[in-house]
Design a protein that fits this description.
Cytochrome Bc1 Complex, Chain D, domain 2; single chain; mainly alpha; globular; 225 residues
Length: 225
């Protein structure tokens, strides 16, 4: 039976914003200004800390929109607000252009660890591998088809078959993002912590997702290239 795709996107690493034009940033200038971002987001936008998002390969206009939201306190993050408050619009454009010019790195496959001590380590590892295989399958299905029963929308409709996003519509690229960050982003949407969404789309989607579905689709997206 062919599943009908649900038409709303699954916004993960960032939030949906109104359509923005092509950024007019300078890549070289952006590289120089990105020195303050290295500790969290890496030297080329590939964060080594899984709870901080990768910025490499993100659409420039999307990065600019998020920086503006941090600066205007539309998106809540004391750490990012303290940085963005000192950025003028040209600096944001430059940073967006620089990160857009970088190539996002691949991730290592997700790993599941047992919560409880298990005397049979081999059996525990085997069970973990089976669970990971199941989660990856669930995540792939959610990404392509959504969940018609619970009305969870398919990600592919707006983020594309390979997680490349949609520049004209300002849907962000999400492929190869850290799974830990994706899980946190979806959980924040689910709990209403993320507030800079112009409508309730992502909150409505995430609220219908189980914790297992959030983990599953995050694992799947983290492996997309």
């Amino acid at each position: 039976m062919i599943k009908k795709l649900l038409a709303f996107p699954l916004m993960l690493a960032f939030v949906m914003t109104p359509t923005l034009g092509q950024a007019k940033g300078n890549i070289s200038a952006g590289e120089s200004k990105a020195t303050n971002c290295i500790s969290c987001h890496g030297g080329n936008g590939n964060s080594m800390i899984p709870t901080f998002p990768k910025l490499a390969g993100q659409h420039a206009s999307y990065t600019v929109r998020q920086l503006k939201d941090f600066k205007d306190s539309e998106r809540n993050s004391p750490m990012m607000a303290a940085i963005a408050i000192n950025l003028d619009e040209q600096s944001m454009e430059d940073l967006g252009a620089y990160y857009a010019s970088q190539t996002i790195s691949d991730n290592l496959p997700p790993v599941i660890f047992s919560d409880d001590d298990d005397d049979d380590e081999e059996a525990a590892n085997r069970n973990n591998q089976e669970e990971l295989k199941t989660l990856m399958s669930i995540g792939a299905d959610l990404y392509r088809n959504g969940n018609l029963k619970s009305k969870v929308s398919a990600c592919i409709a707006c983020h594309g078959p390979n997680g490349e996003g949609n520049l004209p519509s300002s849907f962000p690229a999400i492929r190869s993002q850290h799974a830990d960050y994706l899980i946190k982003a979806l959980t924040d949407f689910k709990k209403g912590i993320r507030t800079n969404l112009p409508d309730t789309m992502m909150h409505l989607i995430a609220q219908k997702m189980t914790e297992r579905e959030i983990k599953a689709v995050s694992f799947h997206i983290s492996m997309m290239k």
